[in-house]
Design brief:
The protein is built from twelve helices and ten strands. The protein starts with a strand and ends with a helix. The protein is globular, with a radius of gyration of 23 Å. The protein has helices at about 15-25, 95-100, 125-140, 155-165, 185-200, 200-215, 215-230, 240-255, 270-280, 290-305, 345-355, 400-415, and strands at about 1-5, 30-40, 40-50, 65-70, 80, 100-105, 145-150, 170-175, 360-365, 385. Helix 4 (about 155-165) links the parallel strand 7 and strand 8 (about 170-175). It folds into two domains: about 1-180 and about 345-415, Rossmann fold, CATH 3.40.50; about 185-330, no CATH class. An eight-stranded mixed sheet has the order 1-2-3-4-6-5-7-8, with helices on both faces. A two-stranded parallel ribbon has the order 9-10. It has about 425 residues and is of the alpha/beta class.
Length: about 425
């Protein structure tokens, strides 16, 4: 076992080591780091534990999974947060509201939680839920008070799936902006974007997109300049194709993060204005090889189980080099067979319909992902809140005071605080 001591702390307290001893009894720890007192927690521990790739047979070699345990009190409730992607320790508003312990789990096949040998068939939502279940069961006799599951975006989706698969693991769940698409490319997000565009600045966005495509030869040198400066390579998609993807992605990203209509450049914008705006709203680096490598596991899941969105290219066909082949499937891992399960999310939804009690779903009404939001059944003691004018970054602190008070009241009631 490797021990890494953070330079940010002074002496390791006796209590820190006593608690660490308890964790060592519960997990097969590969290495650990003591991060000391942070953000109101008496101790924060970064653990790399041995986790099964296949929880069903346990025959495949285990992989290292990073988790963070921020300890407040064994008699306090505990928030279990899944990242959906790579992770690190940072404060969690739900844990702060509840004065709770915090357990953060890095998603399998992300960050430093990567197996030596990839077995893509085990990168599934069920296996990820099993990761959370194993961690929850390992800690249940230490942190005996009620637990709450939470996550944001893809982590919010994972939270819904975890609560559906293991409804008794946690007393409540708070998924933020976590969609449950029911198609490999869900039409509801297209309809959402079209509807928002009809209500406000859809024509202005389209005019800008046409301008951006019409002067692509002037924009490409600007993309090349940042690629050279930041040492970015574009081999999965070349820079010309990256520009077209960024233009097609614009409406989704625009509404996802609730950008202002007044900031959209005019239909005769210069190449520099086009470049700056697309770089700010979408980011050309998203199409670079480095980011492609980072998001490969996510795109595998999007097109195998989670569902995703398509590009709206109608009206731009003559300005695109290959209008029929602009698809997010271009960002799937190469040489890996991906077969979509059309029933997976529908089964999750059916389970939530039966067992989705004590859940709080938080969305931004402008966010296209909100078009695929799950709405709890009236029979369930649950809340659905979609804040008007907000996007994918909405949090409890952004909600109206009445909604914040209602959420806290519900959680305290459910957790018996």
């Amino acid at each position: 076992m490797t021990f890494l001591l953070s330079m940010a702390i002074g002496l390791v307290t006796a209590q820190s080591m006593q608690i660490l001893d308890l964790f060592q009894e519960k997990f097969d720890i590969i290495e650990y780091e003591l991060l000391g007192e942070q953000d109101g927690y008496s101790d924060v521990y970064e653990l790399t534990i041995r986790q099964d790739q296949n929880h069903e047979t346990k025959e495949i070699e285990a992989f290292p999974q990073r988790i963070w345990i921020a300890h407040r009190d064994f008699d306090a409730p505990t928030v279990l947060q899944t990242s959906g992607y790579s992770a690190g320790f940072r404060p969690n508003e739900l844990a702060e509201l509840l004065k709770a312990n915090l357990v953060i789990v890095e998603y399998r096949y992300y960050g430093e939680s990567i197996p030596k040998d990839y077995h893509w068939q085990y990168l599934t939502n069920d296996q990820a839920a099993d990761d959370l279940h194993m961690i929850r069961q390992s800690l249940k006799r230490l942190y005996r008070k009620h637990w709450v599951a939470t996550g944001i975006s893809k982590g919010g989706t994972t939270t819904c799936i975890y609560k559906a698969k293991y409804p008794r693991d946690v007393r409540a769940a708070v998924p933020y902006v976590g969609p449950l698409p029911i198609q490999q490319e869900d039409d509801r997000m297209d309809e959402h974007i079209i509807r928002l565009g009809e209500q406000s600045c859809g024509d202005k966005i389209k005019a800008f997109q046409k301008r951006a495509l019409a002067i692509d030869d002037e924009v490409l040198p600007l993309i090349d300049s940042i690629a050279r400066a930041d040492q970015m390579s574009f081999t999965n998609v070349d820079m010309a194709l990256a520009h077209e993807y960024a233009v097609l992605e614009l409406p989704f990203s625009f509404w996802q993060y609730a950008h202002a209509c007044d900031d959209i450049p005019s239909a005769d914008a210069s190449a520099r204005e086009v470049f700056n705006y697309l770089q700010n709203i979408v980011g050309y680096n998203f199409y670079s090889d480095m980011v492609y490598e980072f998001y490969k596991p996510a795109f595998y899941q999007f097109f195998a189980e989670n569902g995703y969105y398509r590009f709206l290219s109608s009206g731009f066909e003559e300005l695109l080099d290959d209008a029929d082949h602009h698809s997010n499937q271009a960002f799937l891992p190469k040489g890996v067979e991906v077969k979509y399960d059309p029933d997976y999310m529908k089964d999750v939804i059916a389970t939530l319909d039966r067992k989705g009690k004590r859940m709080i779903y938080i969305h931004g009404a402008l966010d296209p992902w909100a078009a695929c939001a799950y709405r709890p059944k009236p029979k369930h003691d649950a809340l659905f809140i979609a804040k008007e004018g907000a996007g994918h970054s909405v949090r409890i602190a952004d909600l109206d005071q009445a909604d914040q008070d209602l959420i806290l009241e519900k959680l305290k009631s459910w957790l018996k605080l």
